[in-house]
Amino acid sequence: MEINITGRHMEITDAIRTYVTDRLSRFEEDFPRVENVHVILNVEKYRHMAEVVVQGGNHLRVESEETSDDMYVSIDGAVDKAEKQLRRARDKVQNHNKESLAVAEVEIQAKLEPDEA
Question: pLDDT tens digits, residue range 100-110?
Answer without folding.
Answer: 666 666 777 77
